[in-house]
């Protein structure tokens, strides 16, 4: 009896403590809970890590960092999202988040990588900032395959990348040691300027897609039983993928949720059936959009674009400054048609290209 109690106590001690959460807002079909609130401190910096070795990293946004989690009522479906200002991205069940320095996190997204740099406090102290980063690490460990490689073995090896003057190249070397591909398909042979423009456009569209997913889940437009593929279960202790959370009270999204929807928007087709076999390698505890779900959201985007085009006939109305496209810097909306939706003002300002047709959208500098 005593040994059983001891085993039970050891198992309970091995469980991670519950996350401290903030305010929860109720919606029609679920709840939106604050995990990390914007605290009014110094703004964090969000980079898009462009280049084959992250050597062309671009400062993309600057603002307050927040993390939220949504849960769908009546279904084992949850999703955690991060935001810098008004720019959002999703934490995925199969997308790496790595802590490459005490106050620097790298995020794997479909087709590109982000990095978040948390500044020291205004008084020059680093301890409060690092405590905030420790809280972030605790959150990331619950929602994605998190790795802390800030003090990884081999970080000080004398190879060229590890000793490079550029800190992003050094971060790339550490990410590579995890066996993660860091060059998006089709970008290896592309000119540097073209590849950078594609990744910036992809980042703009990703934020709009994540906002659409978040709203559609909480409003009930996405019906889990009809529009999602859900795999739920418990990972065996000590099994493969030990870096993942030990148990899933609710399924977490696969990174294919975003990539499937972006591909459908850009091509007006869905490749979800061809990816189903690949997703089965993710194990248990994930959800993704099925074909009907992708096509339903694609119709939503097309309807929003159509309403905008009807409301603003071609050639009618005052011209806006270029910086107002899509609501100005820091705003990624679905209000616009053509260039304003999924790759409007920000991508155009950053790469300076002319408008071209991108599948079913209009953007700059070629397709992504």
Which SSEs are present, and which pair or pack?
Layout: H1 2-14, E1 24-26, E2 30-36, E3 44-48, E4 58-63, E5 65-72, E6 78-84, E7 87-91, E8 97-101, E9 104-109, E10 112-117, H2 127-143, E11 146-148, H3 167-177, H4 192-219, H5 224-227, E12 228-231, E13 252-253, H6 256-267, H7 272-279, E14 286-289, H8 291-311, H9 345-351, E15 355-358, E16 361-364
Parallel strand pairs: 8-11, 13-14
Antiparallel strand pairs: 1-2, 2-5, 3-4, 3-10, 5-6, 6-7, 8-9, 9-10, 12-14, 15-16
Helix pairs in contact: 4-6, 4-9, 6-8
Order of helices and strands: HEEEEEEEEEEHEHHHEEHHEHHEE
Low-pLDDT runs of 5+ residues are 1-14, 234-248, 313-331, 333-368
The separation of the N and C termini measures: 62 Å
Compute the number of strand runs. 16
Name the structural class. Answer: alpha+beta
Name the overall outline: globular
The proportion of residues in beta strands is 15-25%
Report on the structure:
There is one protein chain. β8 and β9 form a beta hairpin. A six-stranded mixed beta sheet has the order 4-3-10-9-8-11, sandwiched between helices. A five-stranded antiparallel beta sheet has the order 1-2-5-6-7. It contains nine helices and 16 strands. By secondary structure, it is α+β, with helices and mostly antiparallel strands. The termini are far apart. The chain is globular.
